[in-house]
Specification:
There is one protein chain. The chain is an alpha/beta fold. It has 4 domains: 225 residues, Beta-Lactamase; 39 residues; 151 residues, Alpha-Beta Plaits (2-Layer Sandwich); 251 residues, TIM Barrel (Alpha-Beta Barrel), CATH 3.20.20.450. Helix content is 52%, strand content 20%. It has 26 helices and 25 strands. Strands 17-18-20-21-22-23-24-25 form an 8-stranded mixed beta barrel, surrounded by 5 helices. Strand 3 and strand 4 form a beta hairpin. The longest helix is centred in the first third of the chain and has 60 residues. It is flat and about 130 Å long.
């Protein structure tokens, strides 16, 4: 019983104290709010009063009689005017002083305010123990000949008005300093001459000082709010609360005596069960032999225990498993692999870590939707999991990445397992009653050969897999040093957008010569990047990285804009030269590319036929259908299309006629040996004949000498490009080169021209 009553008594006392303290804080807060509101009201009142009085004083300064009397020195008239006007505006004292502050006349008495008062337009001052609100205005006739000083007594009537306005006590203090005294107050307890500390030190009151004149030190109005008065409405409530607490404690004591025998044991059982649950033990039912409310409570407690146990298990599972496939996630894989490594005996065989990725899953998602790609991922997970051996662990660690841990498995055995996996996925996945053959890209890392901890092994396997994504070999083992290359590639990818934004990427141009007319007919735009930390980067390096990271689109649009802008510049300079820009496979699947190209041409007022977009055979073949649609849109705009590196791709000659192309560029690998290799010559001849039969113009790349130039001319090529003409150079250098270019360069380039080549 005591264990019941004592805690309840303590709880009641604590609750009562908390309530009373809350009420106290609330009262003080409301009192402070009333002071803030009162302060705002007083400030508005004093400001309005000042404006009213200032207007009255300015009217007085316009009195012609006063000006005339002041100008003639008529003291009697001056005193009369001061008396009449002061009475009219309710001033308690009116003075006329000269420019040095000396008294000329007053409405009564020989008072003179201190010189510092005369030098201000509005202030407060104490004269003969009385506080005044003073206004000083110049008397002009038309120049200032004297100053009018009007003073209004700050008295008890003012404090009573402020008290009535705010509902607060109001006192006026001579100054905020240590020697300040109460001048007047609406409180009977505070008399004139009382030290100001009596206002601020009284703990029964909250105070709020308000400057009599805003922004000026001097007399202040102090508002006071009584805490005792504010608490009066709560006194009866506090008494009732205390009485209620006492009655409740008595009732609880009685109830404890009557029912402790019947409820103590069930409550103890419930308390013990709660402690077990806190400790993480959810086993064991709570048995209460009762059919009353305690029995129902025990049943509910048992149901809650089971629900919490199931939820804990579910949360624990979700924390370590992937939502889509229900396979272990990365944290679970890391923990499992770490355990294998730490507990590995000395004679343990190697552990193989495989990183697997379903190839072209992104394209499947784009074509069939995310739901289809998710279904394929789930089915692939099921097939892979069904073929695990004892001790193997399969995890899903990313959107399209699986990790397979093979204990006691060397790399050779792992490669055999990979072949089985490839066979399973190539024939066992079905979507909408259609068999789909899935291909995988695999990276392999081996413990302890490649690493001695889980994090390194997983990272190395991922690096090897990404190498597999960009190579013809879909299975790659980690090679020592590839991590540095991978980090470098990541840095290149991460810095590329900033480089484009900050214009660190530069566009160079290589000229193309029309063989028939012997003039420069166009240029090819080529990008160059001198990285601030890595130095000069090969275009193959950062363009490949951009294609893999999906940032190639931004690079292409930058080069397009720069090339077309430069074309416009050359046109204005008098050079009618077309520009060529290379497109990637990702660019060919960008449905918005034609609109972007058209906008760039319009912005620079360049005709579409002056822009050639170069594409490779392999880029077209990645997504032939979408690529052809984009190319047809570009053709309809009027842009020329060129197939670059022809002869090295995977397209057939029959497909060539279905692609909207204007130009064929023979790869330089065939041009290099066209003079010495009969097979190369035959290939070039056949390619040129094919292009002409299809109505296409032929560009020969890689022309390095005069003999090659003559040979490709004889074979029928229309345009030549290569170092025999010029290497890629900045636009300003190319402009100078074109100005000096003549057809005689074919036979012998002059030394002066070599500087621009």
């Amino acid at each position: 019983m005591l264990l019941t009553i004592v805690p309840l008594a303590i709880a009641q006392v604590v609750t009562l104290f908390a309530v009373m303290r809350t009420v106290q804080n609330d009262v003080e807060s409301r009192a402070q709010e009333s002071l803030v509101v009162g302060g705002e009201l007083v400030a508005e009142f004093l400001t309005g009063r000042s404006e009213q009085l200032r207007t009255s004083v300015e009217v007085m300064s316009s009195d012609f009689g006063l000006k005339e009397a002041a100008a003639t020195g008529d003291a009697t008239t001056i005193e009369s005017v001061l008396h009449n006007h002061s009475a009219r505006v309710g001033a308690d004292i009116a003075l006329l002083v000269d420019l040095d502050g000396a008294l000329i006349a007053s409405s009564g008495g020989g008072h003179a305010f201190p010189p510092h008062v005369v030098g201000q337009d509005e202030t407060t001052a104490v004269l003969d123990g009385k506080a005044y609100h003073v206004f000083v205005v110049p008397l002009k006739a038309p120049v200032t000949i004297a100053r009018i000083v009007l003073g209004f007594h700050i008295d008890g009537a003012l404090t009573e008005k402020i008290a009535g306005l705010t509902g607060l006590r109001a006192s006026i203090i001579s100054s905020p300093g240590d020697d300040a005294e109460v001048m007047v107050s609406s409180s009977a307890e505070l008399r004139s001459g009382t030290h100001a500390s009596a206002v601020y030190a009284d703990e029964e009151f909250l105070t709020m000082p308000v400057e009599f004149i805003a922004g000026r030190a001097g007399i202040v109005v102090v508002l006071q709010r009584s805490i005792v008065e504010a608490m009066l409405p709560y006194v009866e409530a506090r008494r009732g609360l205390v009485l209620f607490a006492v009655v409740l404690l008595v009732l609880v004591a009685i109830a404890g005596i009557l029912f402790s025998a019947t409820i103590a044991q069930p409550l103890r059982s419930l308390a013990d069960a709660a402690q077990r649950m806190i400790a993480g033990n959810y086993d064991g039912d709570i048995v209460v032999q009762s059919r009353d409310e305690l029995g129902e409570l025990a049943s509910s407690f048992n149901a809650m225990r089971l629900a919490i146990s199931e939820r804990e298990q579910r949360i624990s599972h979700q924390a370590t498993h992937d939502d889509l496939t229900d396979l272990p996630n990365r944290s679970k894989v890391v923990k499992y692999l770490t355990g294998l490594i730490e507990n590995a005996p000395d004679g343990l065989e190697n552990i193989s870590v495989l990183s697997l990725r379903i190839a072209r899953l992104g394209e499947i998602s784009s074509t069939l939707g995310h739901k289809a790609s998710d279904e394929l991922t789930v089915q692939a997970a099921r097939h892979l999991h069904a073929n695990l051996s004892e001790g193997d662990l399969l995890g899903h660690t990313g959107t399209n990445e699986f990790v397979l841990i093979l204990p006691e498995c060397s790399s050779d055995k792992a490669l055999e397992r990979i072949e089985r996996i490839e066979h399973i996925l190539s024939s066992g996945v079905t979507l909408d009653n259609t068999d789909i053959s899935l291909q995988i890209e695999v990276g392999l890392a081996e413990f302890p050969r490649h690493g001695d901890n889980a994090a390194d092994l997983l990272r190395f396997a991922s690096i090897a897999r990404m190498d597999a994504e960009t190579s013809s070999d879909r299975v790659r083992q980690y090679e020592s040093g590839r991590e540095d290359e991978f980090v470098r590639r990541l840095q290149v990818v991460n810095d590329l957008r900033a480089a484009i934004r900050h214009r660190e990427i530069h566009v160079y141009y290589q000229p193309k010569a029309c063989l028939k007319e012997g003039k420069i007919s166009g240029v090819e735009a080529l990008v160059r990047w001198n990285h601030p930390k890595l130095g000069f980067l090969s275009p193959d390096e950062f363009i490949t990285a951009a294609e893999q990271a999906g940032t190639i689109v931004h690079l292409t649009r930058f080069v397009l804009a720069e090339a077309v802008k430069q074309c416009r510049h050359w046109l204005d300079f008098g050079f009618d030269m077309a520009v060529s820009v290379n497109l990637s496979a990702r660019d060919l699947t960008d449905e918005y590319l034609p609109y972007h190209v058209l906008q760039i041409l319009k912005d620079n007022d360049v005709k579409p036929h002056l822009l050639t977009l170069e594409i490779t055979e392999s880029s077209i073949m990645e997504d032939l259908g979408r690529s052809v649609l984009v190319l047809e849109c570009l053709r309809d705009i009027g842009v020329r299309i060129s197939i670059d590196d022809f002869g090295t791709g995977h397209s057939s000659l029959s497909q060539l006629k279905n692609i909207p192309v204007h130009e064929l560029k023979v790869d330089k690998s065939f041009i290099f040996g066209v003079c010495d290799d009969t097979e190369n010559e035959a290939i070039v001849r056949a390619t040129i004949d094919l292009a002409h039969n299809l109505g296409l113009e032929v560009v020969a790349e890689g022309v390095e000498d005069e003999a090659t130039m003559r040979r490709i001319t004889a074979l029928g090529a229309e345009v030549a490009q290569g170092y025999f003409l010029s290497k890629p150079v900045p636009p300003e250098t190319l402009t100078k080169w074109v100005m000096r270019y003549t057809p005689t360069v074919y036979k012998e380039r002059r030394e002066s021209d070599r500087a621009f080549a």
